Amino acid sequence: MTATLIDGKAFAAELRQRIADEVTRLKDRGITPGLAVVLVGEDPASQVYVRSKGKQTVQVGMNSYEHKLPAETSQEELLTLIERLNSDPAVNGILVQLPLPAHLDEAAVINAIDPAKDVDGFHILNVGLLATGQKAMVPCTPLGCLMLLRDQLGELSGKRAVVLGRSNIVGKPMAQLLLRDSATVTIAHSRTTDLPELCRQADILVAAVGRPHFVQADWIKPGATVIDVGINRTETGLVGDVDFAAASQVAGAITPVPGGVGPMTIACLLANTLTATARVNGLPDPEGLTP
Ligand SMILES: Nc1nc(=O)c2c([nH]1)NC[C@@H]1CN(c3ccc(C(=O)N[C@@H](CCC(=O)O)C(=O)O)cc3)C=[N+]21
């Protein structure tokens, strides 16, 4: 059996086109969405992402504000910048690139962002809103995965989903979104016993553990839908958390790395910026960009 390839790159391109159309409509009303990205330090991978985000932000017609701060930036200096962005009406979305240098308090920084501008959906208010089924800003990577899953399967209700990984950025919000769509959700992690057996029960398997080729083909239920969130840099290039070559002989559908979830993450960041802009202006949420 050969799995259907879930083309996240193409899906993300369509999403960006829809976002660009909405931005055009907003501009006709005199509104231009603005996204501020804050990068502290010189991590090369982070620099690549931030550049890519800025480029795509401009491509869909939004304003991009990049703030690059030295690695030695103090907590107080960073909080001062966030305060400034919170009160700047030209800024509709704020993203602080993670991870932050170790001397900075990540939770305090995230929770200093105006929740209405928290396009990452990491602020405790948004986490609580999502967990209780209320209107929230939803983390970009899980939102992108949800869009791919709905597109592939139509209906998630009653399906067994296993989420590998329990991070605040991917695993936990992914589980919340799947639960909201009435899937039966298990969150598994490094301490889970009989992991292969558990995974074999999954109709939907979302791998977000950050270990190259961790998920083996014989962990996958024949015909299952596999979403690979892993972005691992190895000598052979970028690889996911799933042994793609072998897994694609068993799965029903699978995302590649690169070209799967990664492009969806950035497209959903732009979607969230558009949503935040609509909400602050008292306009309805843009169609199909929120869960
Ligand atoms: N506050 C915050 N929000 C984030 O959303 C965030 C972050 N911090 N820190 C870093 C991670 C990582 N991340 C990715 C985004 C796009 C690709 C992406 O587009 N990947 C391409 C390949 C790009 C390449 O070749 O490196 C692909 O998978 O096809 C990957 C990873 C967002 N992150």
TrEMBL record:
GO terms for cellular component: cytosol. It comes from the Bacteria. It catalyses: (6R)-5,10-methylene-5,6,7,8-tetrahydrofolate + NADP(+) = (6R)-5,10-methenyltetrahydrofolate + NADPH; (6R)-5,10-methenyltetrahydrofolate + H2O = (6R)-10-formyltetrahydrofolate + H(+). One of its GO terms (biological process) is L-histidine biosynthetic process. Pathway: One-carbon metabolism; tetrahydrofolate interconversion. NCBIfam families: PRK10792.1, PRK14186.1, PRK14188.1. PANTHER family: C-1-TETRAHYDROFOLATE SYNTHASE, CYTOPLASMIC, C-1-TETRAHYDROFOLATE SYNTHASE, CYTOPLASMIC-RELATED. Homodimer. Belongs to the tetrahydrofolate dehydrogenase/cyclohydrolase family. This is Bifunctional protein FolD. It comes from Paracoccus seriniphilus. The gene is folD.
